Amino acid sequence: MPAARIIPCLDVRDGRVVKGVQFRDHRDVGDIIDHALRYRDEGADELVFYDISASAEDRSLDTEWIRRIGREIDIPFAVAGGIRSRDQAAACLEAGADKVSVNSPALERPGLIEELARDFGSQCVVLGVDSFEKEGDYYVHQYTGRVDRSRDTGLKTLDWVKEATERGAGEIVLNCMRRDGVRSGYDLAHVGAVVGAVEVPVIASGGAGAPEHFRDAFTQAGASGALAATVFHDRLIAIPELKEYLARCGIEIRR
Amino acid sequence: MTLAIVDLGYGNVGSIAVGFQRLGAETRLTADPAEIATAERVVLPGVGAAGYAMARIEALGLRATLTGLDRPLLGICLGMQLLFEASEEDDVGCLGLIPGQVRRLEAVPGRPVPHMGWSRLDVSDADLGLRTGDYVYFAHSYACDDGPASVATTRYGRNIPAAVRRGTVLGAQFHPERSSDAGARFLKAFLSC
User: Fold this and answer.
1) How far, in Å, CA of A251 to CA of B142, rounded?
2) Phi/psi at B177 (5° precision)
3) A99 touches chain B (CB under 8 A)
4) Which residues of B are catalytic?
């Protein structure tokens, strides 16, 4: 089996790294290349760069910073935010991204997933899902990058991940929105339900606050990777110590 | 050192070029048979599906060029799969430079497909810069048959060749340009083989 992946997520706005709580109130936390290099050196297994404004503002992300990252780091990275067409995805991949992650545009037009999988292969196509708990079930939200446009699609999360993987998505990043930025742990039951519903790797996102939360995402929920932002950006958890801890727990880790 | 990266008309070759440029190689993205035939090293990258990639190779008139090279050739990811005889993906005949077939990985609970992430290598040929215990980055749903050409393998339900070598033809199922130090050692070994 591959090593369990530790994945820092960098929310990007205008080429800077930002971070908000529950997808709101973003503050600037620094330069994109500085962050990418620091995480690479600390042993991050992969990085995700998410342009938080591109999707909601109906524009595709800027490929210049993708090119800068591609030159600087030698670990895989995915980019997300406003990728609406095959050509926009091609531009990101050509700039050096290893994967593109689609979220709101795939909800607008699910056929986008098939087009990307056909031309670039499923392994390049990540589906980002913003999942929100309501009355004991989970529903997909759209346009979460902007407060005034964020909406409940009425689509159940498990139905959407099954449909999207049948269309060719090769990985799921599951953002449990109620957990985002609050550091109370991943939503293990929900991550586990998605892992059981699809054949592709699932990355847990939203809620990491302590090393045990990462352990549980792997051992209890069966996630292939665990994504986090706040705890890494604010240096509450150092990746080398986290990896040492996970290895001591018997989890296969790349070091 | 001049290195031709075969341009099949899809993206994601930028990271491969950068990986070699970090090691001082001069890279050219090209579909010109003459330029490919005279380059000191040739890289066949791959993103997408086997059927499309083979159709592009035929349409560009590159089959004879790629199968007749006398300089070292490296296929990466799908590019390595194209070196084999045939692929289950799109049920297509490939270049036949290495014996064996390419088959789909089987997803079972606890073993998702695509095989995505850093997996540990067992290395039988130390000449290519890889060592047993190295972790390298994989992202694929199809895998080549294990056989005499395998020089490094990993385990994913079955033994998967991670790197192959037959004469001057080399392949990497993993992504050396995204495999940190182990990947750089492999690319360096290819440049000096």
Assistant:
1) 26
2) -70, -10
3) yes
4) 77, 175, 177
pLDDT band at A75 (very low <50, low <70, confident <90, very high): very high
Q: Is the peptide bond before B33 cis (omega within 30 degrees of 0)?
A: no
Asked if pLDDT for residue B48 goes beyond 80, the answer is: no
CA-to-CA distance for B77 and A129, rounded, in angstroms?
28
Q: Where are the domains of chain B?
A: 2-191
The residue ranges of every structural domain in chain A are 5-248
CA of B82 to nearest chain A CA: how many angstroms apart? 15
Interface contact flag, B112 A119, Cβ < 8 Å: no
- Residue B30 phi, psi (nearest 5): -150, 150
Q: Which residues in chain A have Cβ-Cβ distances shorter than 8 Å to B52?
A: 119
Q: Which CATH architecture has domain B2-191?
A: 3-Layer(aba) Sandwich (3.40)
Identity of the residue numbered A158: L
Q: How far is CA B183 from the centre of its chain?
A: 12
Chain B contact set for A71 (CB, 8 A): 18
The tokens for A249 are 């727990």
The DSSP-derived string for B127-172 is GGS--TT-EEEEEESEEEPP-TTEEEEEEESEEEEEEEEETTEEEE
The CATH architecture of the domain made up of A5-248 is: Alpha-Beta Barrel (3.20)
Give the pLDDT of residue A216: 98
Is the ipTM above a cut-off of 0.90?
A: yes
- Cα separation, B146 vs B109, in Å, equals 23
Q: Tell me how many residue pairs between chain A and chain B have CB atoms under 8 A apart.
A: 121
pLDDT in tens, B50-94: 998 999 999 999 999 999 999 999 999 999 999 999 999 999 999
Cα A111 to Cα A115: distance, rounded to the nearest angstrom: 6
Cβ neighbors of A140 (< 8 A, separation 6 or more) are A107, A129, A130, A131, A132, A152, A153, A155, A156, A157, A160
Kindly report, residue by residue over A163-201, the tens digit of the pLDDT. 999 999 999 999 998 777 678 899 999 999 999 999 999
User: What is the tally of helices (H) and strands (E) in chain B?
Assistant: 6, 14
DSSP-derived secondary structure letter, A97:
-
> Whose structure tokens read 């346009």?
A143
- The b-or-e profile of B105-120 (16+ CB within 10 A means b, else e) is bebeeeebbbbbbbbb
Report whether A53 contacts A23 (CB < 8 A): no
Phi, psi for residue A174 in degrees, rounded to 5: -100, 105
